[in-house]
């Protein structure tokens, strides 16, 4: 246990108690009219002239929709997400808790998810001397102290997260000072509020013994420091977001966490032996997509912590870290969630294709992390967890198909957090992305086009000119804002990202390559 953990947990709860006990009025950034909001259309990106696609039989990734074959349904959760958004009415409730599907008492009688959305209307001060910075011992973050930094973050949030993860009947997000984004009820299951992250074929993790295709489920929370930015964007009603170059910028010290679970249990994947399981009310994975939901267990596999720390990460403003489940570690379930690694930049000066042996200076991977968690690291070994889908398989570039290409990283994916999104999540020459056969067309690894996704720039600078920067927050850019736009304007713009889905078979583009996985 980190020596600061108990004191800092108490400090955090003291701040939260002051906030919760005071008469917090919803003043400040209130809802504006649509005309005053001046929000660009999400599908404006489609009007820009795309680059020339790769040679071959190229198919726009949005050429087939879920309605292409009446009476059937797509396998990919991405298409299901878009369809769920487009079923929202103009009067949809942005603060609804779930998709309306509630398990019978005979199946589940525990607590249900409650959306926490009473965002602070005044900035909340972070700790004066953050323990994660203290863990660096006055030195720049690097291979000698990055894991200590992650463990200090883990200890700081331990009290609340142990309740969320392992004592759900006692979890009260609002009282604890943790918050969620609005507008996602149509994709949230009712027990824990998770939604689909990715689907992975068994061969992705064959080396660690995965026996079945698996689906992951994710859930994101913002602490009270970070939630001030949610209030600045969404206001009191969440009907008319305020989108400026500053409204979506998170205060210093903001913490965002994401839990990721897998449908694979220990009998399906030996590395999950002893892992904590959550009951979820979802359509069973690997079954008919039209099947009714049922209560099923999912294993807690990954836990991400990101913190706004411009002192430690002056180029980007953020430090991303990932915990993964390791059954070999003694102790309780929280002790078994160990650091996979941390990153605070995308190493733009390291071309990992041209110089594969060049060391990364802005990513540290824990050498003792379990092997399964390192099987899907990003380009050149940059940080990316097993839920995060950094590997494109198969991929197409330079007129040829390759079996797999590590094509992203935590920060690379999140660098596309802008509104409207004018670039795909992965290095793709076009928006919409395109396919050749069953392969996703990508930029040539290591090329100037590829390197666009591996820059170091702060979150107040968008990846593409003419867009609103959203400070690395992909829930804003890829989930809640498209859902809001569909509900209020009848057009989500998400078609630009949809794969050419093959029904009841292997999708021509792997689902994990075509969407953001939850944070």
Automatic annotation (TrEMBL):
Signal peptide bounds: 1-44
UniProt keyword terms in alphabetical order: Signal
Spans annotated as Disordered: 45-74
Record-given protein name: Cytochrome c domain-containing protein
